[in-house]
Amino acid sequence: MTNKGKGSKSQRILDVAEELFALHGYDGVTMRQIAKGANVDVALANYHFGKKLDLFYAVFNRRAEVLSSWRREALLASREKAAGKPQTLEQIIEAFLLPLKVAQESGDPGWRNYLALLAYVMTSPIWNKILMPEVFDKRVGEFVEALKSALPNARDDDIHWCYQYVSGALALTLAQTGRIDRLSDGTCLSSDFDAAYDHMIPFVAAGFRAVCGD
Amino acid sequence: MTNKGKGSKSQRILDVAEELFALHGYDGVTMRQIAKGANVDVALANYHFGKKLDLFYAVFNRRAEVLSSWRREALLASREKAAGKPQTLEQIIEAFLLPLKVAQESGDPGWRNYLALLAYVMTSPIWNKILMPEVFDKRVGEFVEALKSALPNARDDDIHWCYQYVSGALALTLAQTGRIDRLSDGTCLSSDFDAAYDHMIPFVAAGFRAVCGD
DNA sequence: CACTATATTCAACGAGCGTTGAATTTGCAA
DNA sequence: TTGCAAATTCAACGCTCGTTGAATATAGTG
Fold first, then answer.
1. Residue A60, C-beta contacts closer than 8 angstroms, at least 6 positions apart
2. Is nucleic acid strand C under 7 Å from B40's C-beta?
3. Composition of chain A by helix, strand, coil, percent to 5
4. pLDDT at A3
5. Per-residue pLDDT averaged across B102-111, rounded?
6. In chain A, N or C terminus with fewer CB closer than 10 Å?
7. Total tally of structural domains belonging to chain A
8. For residue B132, what is the domain's CATH number?
9. Cα–Cα distances in Å, from A116 out to A24, A88, A98, A121, A174?
Protein backbone atom coordinates (compact mmCIF):
# COMPACT_ATOMS: atom_id res chain seq x y z
CA MET A 1 0.00 0.00 0.00
CA THR A 2 2.32 2.71 1.34
CA ASN A 3 -0.51 5.17 0.95
CA LYS A 4 0.03 8.21 3.11
CA GLY A 5 -1.96 10.53 0.89
CA LYS A 6 -5.36 12.14 1.33
CA GLY A 7 -7.91 9.79 2.81
CA SER A 8 -5.35 7.29 4.06
CA LYS A 9 -5.80 5.90 7.52
CA SER A 10 -2.93 7.90 8.98
CA GLN A 11 -4.44 11.10 7.57
CA ARG A 12 -7.84 10.15 8.92
CA ILE A 13 -6.30 9.73 12.36
CA LEU A 14 -4.83 13.23 12.15
CA ASP A 15 -8.13 14.67 10.94
CA VAL A 16 -10.18 13.14 13.71
CA ALA A 17 -7.60 14.03 16.34
CA GLU A 18 -7.59 17.60 15.05
CA GLU A 19 -11.35 17.89 15.39
CA LEU A 20 -11.52 16.31 18.84
CA PHE A 21 -8.53 18.18 20.28
CA ALA A 22 -9.98 21.47 19.04
CA LEU A 23 -13.30 20.75 20.70
CA HIS A 24 -12.27 19.11 23.99
CA GLY A 25 -8.60 19.98 24.46
CA TYR A 26 -5.70 17.62 24.86
CA ASP A 27 -6.79 15.92 28.06
CA GLY A 28 -10.43 15.76 27.02
CA VAL A 29 -9.74 13.29 24.25
CA THR A 30 -8.67 9.65 24.48
CA MET A 31 -6.68 7.64 21.98
CA ARG A 32 -9.61 5.26 21.76
CA GLN A 33 -12.02 8.05 20.81
CA ILE A 34 -9.67 9.13 18.06
CA ALA A 35 -9.25 5.58 16.81
CA LYS A 36 -12.99 5.00 16.85
CA GLY A 37 -13.63 8.22 14.94
CA ALA A 38 -11.13 7.15 12.32
CA ASN A 39 -12.48 3.59 12.14
CA VAL A 40 -9.15 2.21 13.14
CA ASP A 41 -7.57 0.21 15.95
CA VAL A 42 -6.09 2.11 18.89
CA ALA A 43 -2.67 0.65 18.29
CA LEU A 44 -2.49 2.12 14.80
CA ALA A 45 -2.36 5.68 16.05
CA ASN A 46 0.57 4.66 18.22
CA TYR A 47 2.25 2.92 15.32
CA HIS A 48 2.09 5.98 13.08
CA PHE A 49 2.61 8.81 15.53
CA GLY A 50 4.07 7.39 18.73
CA LYS A 51 2.74 8.60 22.05
CA LYS A 52 -0.39 10.68 22.52
CA LEU A 53 1.68 13.81 23.05
CA ASP A 54 3.54 13.21 19.80
CA LEU A 55 0.24 12.78 18.00
CA PHE A 56 -0.87 16.13 19.38
CA TYR A 57 2.32 17.75 18.12
CA ALA A 58 1.89 16.08 14.74
CA VAL A 59 -1.62 17.47 14.46
CA PHE A 60 -0.49 20.96 15.41
CA ASN A 61 2.57 21.00 13.17
CA ARG A 62 0.88 19.59 10.09
CA ARG A 63 -0.69 22.91 9.17
CA ALA A 64 1.46 25.29 11.20
CA GLU A 65 4.17 25.71 8.59
CA VAL A 66 1.62 26.01 5.80
CA LEU A 67 -0.27 28.75 7.57
CA SER A 68 2.87 30.55 8.60
CA SER A 69 4.24 30.62 5.07
CA TRP A 70 0.92 31.89 3.75
CA ARG A 71 1.22 34.72 6.23
CA ARG A 72 4.71 35.54 5.12
CA GLU A 73 3.66 35.60 1.48
CA ALA A 74 0.65 37.77 2.23
CA LEU A 75 2.82 40.28 4.04
CA LEU A 76 5.36 40.32 1.19
CA ALA A 77 2.66 40.70 -1.43
CA SER A 78 1.15 43.55 0.52
CA ARG A 79 4.53 45.27 0.75
CA GLU A 80 5.09 44.89 -2.98
CA LYS A 81 1.66 46.25 -3.76
CA ALA A 82 2.52 49.37 -1.77
CA ALA A 83 5.43 49.86 -4.19
CA GLY A 84 7.96 51.53 -1.97
CA LYS A 85 5.48 53.67 -0.10
CA PRO A 86 4.82 52.69 3.49
CA GLN A 87 1.83 50.41 3.74
CA THR A 88 -1.28 51.65 5.47
CA LEU A 89 -2.28 50.14 8.77
CA GLU A 90 -5.29 48.58 7.12
CA GLN A 91 -3.12 46.89 4.51
CA ILE A 92 -0.84 45.39 7.13
CA ILE A 93 -3.70 44.09 9.23
CA GLU A 94 -5.44 42.75 6.16
CA ALA A 95 -2.31 40.85 5.18
CA PHE A 96 -2.09 39.45 8.68
CA LEU A 97 -5.68 38.22 8.68
CA LEU A 98 -6.12 37.19 5.06
CA PRO A 99 -4.52 33.72 5.29
CA LEU A 100 -6.79 32.83 8.19
CA LYS A 101 -9.81 33.95 6.25
CA VAL A 102 -8.69 31.94 3.25
CA ALA A 103 -8.13 28.86 5.40
CA GLN A 104 -11.53 29.22 7.01
CA GLU A 105 -13.29 29.54 3.70
CA SER A 106 -11.25 26.90 1.86
CA GLY A 107 -14.09 24.45 2.15
CA ASP A 108 -11.83 22.00 3.94
CA PRO A 109 -13.43 21.43 7.35
CA GLY A 110 -9.99 20.37 8.55
CA TRP A 111 -8.86 23.97 8.35
CA ARG A 112 -11.77 25.18 10.44
CA ASN A 113 -10.94 22.57 13.05
CA TYR A 114 -7.28 23.50 12.95
CA LEU A 115 -7.96 27.17 13.54
CA ALA A 116 -10.12 26.30 16.52
CA LEU A 117 -7.22 24.19 17.75
CA LEU A 118 -4.93 27.17 17.23
CA ALA A 119 -7.25 29.29 19.35
CA TYR A 120 -7.10 26.61 22.05
CA VAL A 121 -3.31 26.65 21.99
CA MET A 122 -3.10 30.44 21.93
CA THR A 123 -5.29 30.82 25.00
CA SER A 124 -3.83 27.95 27.02
CA PRO A 125 -1.13 28.96 29.52
CA ILE A 126 0.43 25.52 29.08
CA TRP A 127 0.41 24.93 25.33
CA ASN A 128 1.10 28.51 24.40
CA LYS A 129 4.59 28.34 25.86
CA ILE A 130 5.35 25.02 24.19
CA LEU A 131 3.87 25.41 20.73
CA MET A 132 3.69 29.07 19.79
CA PRO A 133 7.38 30.04 19.84
CA GLU A 134 8.52 27.46 17.32
CA VAL A 135 6.60 28.63 14.29
CA PHE A 136 4.21 31.47 14.92
CA ASP A 137 6.15 33.88 17.10
CA LYS A 138 8.64 34.64 14.32
CA ARG A 139 5.88 35.71 11.95
CA VAL A 140 4.57 38.00 14.64
CA GLY A 141 7.95 39.70 14.74
CA GLU A 142 7.66 40.57 11.05
CA PHE A 143 4.14 41.84 11.62
CA VAL A 144 5.24 44.04 14.49
CA GLU A 145 8.06 45.46 12.38
CA ALA A 146 5.60 46.39 9.66
CA LEU A 147 3.40 48.06 12.24
CA LYS A 148 6.33 50.09 13.49
CA SER A 149 6.90 51.41 9.99
CA ALA A 150 3.30 52.47 9.69
CA LEU A 151 3.34 54.00 13.17
CA PRO A 152 6.78 55.62 13.35
CA ASN A 153 6.16 57.44 16.61
CA ALA A 154 4.74 54.47 18.47
CA ARG A 155 6.32 53.11 21.62
CA ASP A 156 7.27 49.45 21.60
CA ASP A 157 5.10 48.55 24.54
CA ASP A 158 2.08 50.31 23.05
CA ILE A 159 2.39 48.23 19.91
CA HIS A 160 2.74 45.00 21.83
CA TRP A 161 -0.29 45.67 23.98
CA CYS A 162 -2.32 46.45 20.89
CA TYR A 163 -1.05 43.32 19.24
CA GLN A 164 -2.26 41.32 22.20
CA TYR A 165 -5.75 42.72 21.73
CA VAL A 166 -5.75 41.80 18.05
CA SER A 167 -4.53 38.37 18.97
CA GLY A 168 -7.28 37.92 21.53
CA ALA A 169 -10.02 39.18 19.23
CA LEU A 170 -8.76 36.80 16.58
CA ALA A 171 -8.51 33.84 18.93
CA LEU A 172 -12.06 34.20 20.14
CA THR A 173 -13.26 34.39 16.55
CA LEU A 174 -11.33 31.26 15.58
CA ALA A 175 -12.56 29.42 18.64
CA GLN A 176 -16.09 29.41 17.25
CA THR A 177 -17.76 29.29 20.63
CA GLY A 178 -21.11 30.34 19.24
CA ARG A 179 -21.48 33.02 21.88
CA ILE A 180 -22.04 35.87 19.45
CA ASP A 181 -24.92 33.93 17.93
CA ARG A 182 -26.53 33.73 21.34
CA LEU A 183 -25.83 37.30 22.45
CA SER A 184 -27.05 38.81 19.18
CA ASP A 185 -30.11 36.55 19.00
CA GLY A 186 -28.90 35.15 15.69
CA THR A 187 -28.17 38.52 14.07
CA CYS A 188 -24.49 37.57 13.94
CA LEU A 189 -23.12 34.11 13.20
CA SER A 190 -19.84 32.64 14.46
CA SER A 191 -19.51 30.92 11.14
CA ASP A 192 -19.70 34.17 9.17
CA PHE A 193 -16.00 34.83 8.76
CA ASP A 194 -16.48 37.45 6.10
CA ALA A 195 -18.34 39.60 8.58
CA ALA A 196 -15.86 38.76 11.34
CA TYR A 197 -12.86 39.89 9.32
CA ASP A 198 -14.55 42.83 7.63
CA HIS A 199 -15.41 44.27 11.02
CA MET A 200 -12.11 43.38 12.60
CA ILE A 201 -9.90 45.33 10.22
CA PRO A 202 -11.33 48.82 10.83
CA PHE A 203 -11.78 48.02 14.51
CA VAL A 204 -8.18 47.19 15.23
CA ALA A 205 -6.78 49.77 12.81
CA ALA A 206 -8.59 52.50 14.71
CA GLY A 207 -7.43 50.98 17.99
CA PHE A 208 -3.81 51.05 16.89
CA ARG A 209 -4.08 54.66 15.76
CA ALA A 210 -5.70 55.73 19.01
CA VAL A 211 -3.01 54.10 21.16
CA CYS A 212 0.05 54.33 18.92
CA GLY A 213 -0.77 57.21 16.61
CA ASP A 214 0.93 60.58 16.62
CA MET B 1 -16.39 22.24 63.93
CA THR B 2 -18.83 23.36 61.26
CA ASN B 3 -16.19 25.71 59.94
CA LYS B 4 -16.92 26.60 56.33
CA GLY B 5 -15.18 29.95 56.50
CA LYS B 6 -11.91 31.17 55.07
CA GLY B 7 -9.11 28.64 55.35
CA SER B 8 -11.44 25.72 56.02
CA LYS B 9 -10.78 22.49 54.22
CA SER B 10 -13.75 22.87 51.91
CA GLN B 11 -12.55 26.34 50.93
CA ARG B 12 -9.05 25.03 50.38
CA ILE B 13 -10.44 22.41 48.05
CA LEU B 14 -12.20 25.11 46.03
CA ASP B 15 -9.07 27.26 45.96
CA VAL B 16 -6.81 24.48 44.74
CA ALA B 17 -9.38 23.29 42.21
CA GLU B 18 -9.72 26.86 40.94
CA GLU B 19 -6.00 27.17 40.38
CA LEU B 20 -5.59 23.78 38.72
CA PHE B 21 -8.68 24.03 36.51
CA ALA B 22 -7.54 27.48 35.33
CA LEU B 23 -4.13 26.13 34.41
CA HIS B 24 -4.92 22.70 32.94
CA GLY B 25 -8.62 22.76 32.11
CA TYR B 26 -11.32 20.46 33.41
CA ASP B 27 -9.99 17.21 32.00
CA GLY B 28 -6.39 18.06 32.78
CA VAL B 29 -6.97 17.87 36.52
CA THR B 30 -7.73 14.85 38.68
CA MET B 31 -9.61 14.72 41.94
CA ARG B 32 -6.50 13.29 43.54
CA GLN B 33 -4.36 16.23 42.42
CA ILE B 34 -6.88 18.61 43.94
CA ALA B 35 -7.03 16.63 47.16
CA LYS B 36 -3.27 16.47 47.41
CA GLY B 37 -2.94 20.21 46.81
CA ALA B 38 -5.44 20.85 49.59
CA ASN B 39 -3.81 18.32 51.95
CA VAL B 40 -6.99 16.36 52.14
CA ASP B 41 -8.29 12.91 51.27
CA VAL B 42 -9.84 12.38 47.85
CA ALA B 43 -13.14 11.37 49.33
CA LEU B 44 -13.54 14.69 51.08
CA ALA B 45 -13.92 16.63 47.86
CA ASN B 46 -16.69 14.25 46.91
CA TYR B 47 -18.32 14.58 50.31
CA HIS B 48 -18.49 18.37 50.10
CA PHE B 49 -19.16 18.96 46.43
CA GLY B 50 -20.40 15.72 44.90
CA LYS B 51 -19.08 14.63 41.54
CA LYS B 52 -16.10 16.20 39.78
CA LEU B 53 -18.41 18.10 37.44
CA ASP B 54 -20.32 19.54 40.38
CA LEU B 55 -17.05 20.63 41.95
CA PHE B 56 -16.18 22.41 38.72
CA TYR B 57 -19.53 24.20 38.76
CA ALA B 58 -19.05 25.09 42.42
CA VAL B 59 -15.68 26.63 41.64
CA PHE B 60 -17.06 28.62 38.74
CA ASN B 61 -20.18 29.82 40.52
CA ARG B 62 -18.48 30.83 43.76
CA ARG B 63 -17.21 34.09 42.30
CA ALA B 64 -19.48 34.46 39.29
CA GLU B 65 -22.29 36.22 41.12
CA VAL B 66 -19.86 38.42 43.01
CA LEU B 67 -18.14 39.56 39.86
CA SER B 68 -21.38 40.03 38.00
CA SER B 69 -22.85 42.22 40.72
CA TRP B 70 -19.70 44.33 40.83
CA ARG B 71 -20.16 44.89 37.14
CA ARG B 72 -23.74 45.92 37.58
CA GLU B 73 -22.79 48.37 40.32
CA ALA B 74 -19.94 49.80 38.26
CA LEU B 75 -22.27 50.42 35.34
CA LEU B 76 -24.88 52.05 37.57
CA ALA B 77 -22.29 54.22 39.29
CA SER B 78 -20.97 55.30 35.92
CA ARG B 79 -24.47 56.18 34.75
CA GLU B 80 -25.09 58.21 37.89
CA LYS B 81 -21.83 60.03 37.54
CA ALA B 82 -22.86 61.10 34.04
CA ALA B 83 -25.86 62.79 35.68
CA GLY B 84 -28.46 62.43 32.96
CA LYS B 85 -26.12 63.11 30.09
CA PRO B 86 -25.28 60.13 27.92
CA GLN B 87 -22.09 58.45 29.10
CA THR B 88 -19.06 58.56 26.87
CA LEU B 89 -17.84 55.37 25.27
CA GLU B 90 -14.78 55.46 27.46
CA GLN B 91 -16.86 55.67 30.60
CA ILE B 92 -18.95 52.67 29.60
CA ILE B 93 -15.93 50.55 28.73
CA GLU B 94 -14.18 51.62 31.89
CA ALA B 95 -17.16 50.54 33.94
CA PHE B 96 -17.18 47.21 32.14
CA LEU B 97 -13.51 46.54 32.82
CA LEU B 98 -13.09 48.11 36.24
CA PRO B 99 -14.38 45.16 38.32
CA LEU B 100 -11.97 42.82 36.59
CA LYS B 101 -9.09 45.16 37.28
CA VAL B 102 -10.13 45.45 40.91
CA ALA B 103 -10.39 41.68 41.22
CA GLN B 104 -6.98 41.20 39.66
CA GLU B 105 -5.35 43.68 41.96
CA SER B 106 -7.23 42.67 45.09
CA GLY B 107 -4.18 40.82 46.34
CA ASP B 108 -6.20 37.63 46.60
CA PRO B 109 -4.46 35.15 44.28
CA GLY B 110 -7.76 33.29 44.12
CA TRP B 111 -9.21 36.08 42.01
CA ARG B 112 -6.33 35.94 39.57
CA ASN B 113 -6.86 32.21 39.24
CA TYR B 114 -10.58 32.67 38.82
CA LEU B 115 -10.19 35.18 36.01
CA ALA B 116 -7.88 32.79 34.21
CA LEU B 117 -10.56 30.15 34.68
CA LEU B 118 -13.10 32.59 33.27
CA ALA B 119 -10.89 33.04 30.21
CA TYR B 120 -10.75 29.26 29.83
CA VAL B 121 -14.53 29.02 29.98
CA MET B 122 -15.04 31.96 27.61
CA THR B 123 -12.81 30.46 24.93
CA SER B 124 -13.97 26.86 25.25
CA PRO B 125 -16.65 25.80 22.76
CA ILE B 126 -17.95 23.33 25.33
CA TRP B 127 -18.00 25.26 28.60
CA ASN B 128 -18.99 28.55 27.06
CA LYS B 129 -22.42 27.21 26.14
CA ILE B 130 -22.94 25.66 29.56
CA LEU B 131 -21.62 28.29 31.94
CA MET B 132 -21.76 31.71 30.34
CA PRO B 133 -25.52 32.12 29.78
CA GLU B 134 -26.54 31.66 33.40
CA VAL B 135 -24.79 34.65 34.96
CA PHE B 136 -22.62 36.62 32.59
CA ASP B 137 -24.68 36.93 29.44
CA LYS B 138 -27.31 39.05 31.17
CA ARG B 139 -24.72 41.61 32.24
CA VAL B 140 -23.52 41.76 28.66
CA GLY B 141 -27.03 42.73 27.61
CA GLU B 142 -26.91 45.77 29.90
CA PHE B 143 -23.50 46.67 28.55
CA VAL B 144 -24.69 46.45 24.96
CA GLU B 145 -27.68 48.66 25.76
CA ALA B 146 -25.38 51.30 27.20
CA LEU B 147 -23.24 51.12 24.08
CA LYS B 148 -26.28 51.64 21.91
CA SER B 149 -27.07 54.84 23.80
CA ALA B 150 -23.57 56.13 23.23
CA LEU B 151 -23.62 55.08 19.58
CA PRO B 152 -27.18 55.94 18.51
CA ASN B 153 -26.60 55.31 14.83
CA ALA B 154 -24.90 51.96 15.24
CA ARG B 155 -26.30 48.79 13.72
CA ASP B 156 -26.94 45.91 16.10
CA ASP B 157 -24.61 43.54 14.34
CA ASP B 158 -21.78 46.07 14.28
CA ILE B 159 -22.02 46.46 18.03
CA HIS B 160 -22.06 42.72 18.61
CA TRP B 161 -19.02 42.09 16.44
CA CYS B 162 -17.15 44.82 18.26
CA TYR B 163 -18.21 43.37 21.57
CA GLN B 164 -16.77 40.05 20.53
CA TYR B 165 -13.41 41.70 19.89
CA VAL B 166 -13.45 43.34 23.31
CA SER B 167 -14.37 40.03 24.81
CA GLY B 168 -11.51 38.29 23.05
CA ALA B 169 -8.94 40.93 23.94
CA LEU B 170 -10.08 40.70 27.52
CA ALA B 171 -10.04 36.91 27.61
CA LEU B 172 -6.48 36.70 26.34
CA THR B 173 -5.41 39.22 28.96
CA LEU B 174 -7.11 37.29 31.76
CA ALA B 175 -5.64 34.02 30.51
CA GLN B 176 -2.16 35.18 31.52
CA THR B 177 -0.39 33.06 28.93
CA GLY B 178 2.84 35.02 29.24
CA ARG B 179 3.06 35.43 25.49
CA ILE B 180 3.30 39.21 25.54
CA ASP B 181 6.29 38.92 27.87
CA ARG B 182 8.01 36.74 25.30
CA LEU B 183 7.06 38.73 22.19
CA SER B 184 8.04 42.04 23.71
CA ASP B 185 11.26 40.69 25.22
CA GLY B 186 10.10 41.61 28.68
CA THR B 187 9.04 45.16 27.82
CA CYS B 188 5.45 44.22 28.63
CA LEU B 189 4.35 41.92 31.44
CA SER B 190 1.24 39.73 31.50
CA SER B 191 0.95 40.50 35.17
CA ASP B 192 0.82 44.26 34.62
CA PHE B 193 -2.93 44.73 34.60
CA ASP B 194 -2.74 48.47 34.98
CA ALA B 195 -0.98 48.69 31.65
CA ALA B 196 -3.31 46.10 30.12
CA TYR B 197 -6.46 48.00 31.06
CA ASP B 198 -5.06 51.46 30.45
CA HIS B 199 -4.22 50.49 26.88
CA MET B 200 -7.40 48.54 26.32
CA ILE B 201 -9.82 51.36 27.00
CA PRO B 202 -8.65 53.77 24.26
CA PHE B 203 -8.04 50.85 21.92
CA VAL B 204 -11.55 49.47 22.00
CA ALA B 205 -13.20 52.88 22.27
CA ALA B 206 -11.57 53.90 19.00
CA GLY B 207 -12.51 50.56 17.49
CA PHE B 208 -16.16 51.03 18.39
CA ARG B 209 -16.21 54.54 16.96
CA ALA B 210 -14.60 53.41 13.72
CA VAL B 211 -17.08 50.59 13.18
CA CYS B 212 -20.22 51.95 14.85
CA GLY B 213 -19.71 55.69 14.76
CA ASP B 214 -21.66 58.15 12.70
C1' DC C 1 -20.07 12.70 80.73
C1' DA C 2 -22.82 10.49 76.79
C1' DC C 3 -25.16 11.47 72.30
C1' DT C 4 -25.32 12.99 67.79
C1' DA C 5 -24.39 15.05 63.59
C1' DT C 6 -20.85 16.53 60.88
C1' DA C 7 -16.34 16.13 59.01
C1' DT C 8 -12.68 13.32 57.51
C1' DT C 9 -10.13 9.28 56.32
C1' DC C 10 -9.54 4.46 54.80
C1' DA C 11 -9.84 0.89 51.60
C1' DA C 12 -11.49 -0.71 47.67
C1' DC C 13 -14.44 -1.26 43.35
C1' DG C 14 -14.93 -1.44 38.39
C1' DA C 15 -13.91 1.13 34.35
C1' DG C 16 -11.12 3.25 31.18
C1' DC C 17 -6.63 4.97 30.31
C1' DG C 18 -1.99 4.94 27.34
C1' DT C 19 1.00 1.79 25.75
C1' DT C 20 3.12 -2.49 23.91
C1' DG C 21 4.55 -7.13 21.85
C1' DA C 22 2.98 -10.53 19.14
C1' DA C 23 0.05 -12.05 15.47
C1' DT C 24 -2.14 -11.12 11.18
C1' DT C 25 -3.11 -8.92 6.93
C1' DT C 26 -1.77 -6.24 3.00
C1' DG C 27 0.84 -4.65 -1.04
C1' DC C 28 4.84 -4.61 -3.61
C1' DA C 29 9.25 -6.65 -5.53
C1' DA C 30 11.85 -10.32 -7.24
C1' DT D 1 4.56 -17.46 -6.56
C1' DT D 2 7.37 -16.65 -2.99
C1' DG D 3 9.46 -13.38 0.16
C1' DC D 4 9.54 -9.34 2.69
C1' DA D 5 8.48 -5.13 4.75
C1' DA D 6 4.92 -2.03 5.93
C1' DA D 7 0.39 -1.59 7.75
C1' DT D 8 -3.04 -3.09 10.77
C1' DT D 9 -5.29 -5.64 14.31
C1' DC D 10 -5.49 -8.42 18.56
C1' DA D 11 -4.98 -9.13 23.28
C1' DA D 12 -3.30 -7.76 27.24
C1' DC D 13 -0.28 -5.21 30.69
C1' DG D 14 -0.06 -2.12 34.65
C1' DC D 15 -1.81 2.10 36.13
C1' DT D 16 -4.79 5.83 37.38
C1' DC D 17 -9.23 7.49 37.18
C1' DG D 18 -13.87 8.90 39.63
C1' DT D 19 -16.67 7.21 42.94
C1' DT D 20 -18.44 4.89 47.10
C1' DG D 21 -19.53 2.50 51.69
C1' DA D 22 -17.81 1.70 55.88
C1' DA D 23 -14.89 3.16 59.61
C1' DT D 24 -12.98 6.79 62.41
C1' DA D 25 -12.30 11.35 64.29
C1' DT D 26 -14.12 15.82 65.70
C1' DA D 27 -17.02 19.28 67.70
C1' DG D 28 -21.11 20.97 69.52
C1' DT D 29 -25.40 19.72 72.69
C1' DG D 30 -27.95 17.88 76.49
1. A117, A121, A131
2. yes
3. 75, 0, 25
4. 59
5. 94
6. N
7. 1
8. 1.10.357.10
9. 11, 29, 16, 9, 5
What is the extent of the structural domain holding B149? 63-212
Q: For the segment B21-76, what is each residue's pLDDT rounded down to a tens digit?
A: 999 999 999 999 999 999 999 999 999 999 999 999 999 999 999 999 999 999 99
For residue A179, is it within any domain? yes
Residue B6 forms part of a structural domain: no
Domain presence at residue A45: no
Average model confidence (pLDDT) across chain A: 95
Q: What's the pTM value of the predicted model, to 2 decimals?
A: 0.95
Gap between the Cα atoms of A113 and B1, Å rounded: 51
Contacts of A133 in chain B (CB under 8 A): 182
Give the type of residue at A127: W
Q: Cβ B137–A183 below 8 Å, yes or no?
A: yes
Selecting from B27, B140, B168 the residue whose C-beta is nearest the C-beta of A25 gives B27
Q: Which of A188, A11, A29 is nearest to B28 (CA)?
A: A29
From the CA of A188, how many Å to the nearest CA of chain B?
6
Greater confidence, B196 or B3?
A: B196
B41 part of a folded domain: no
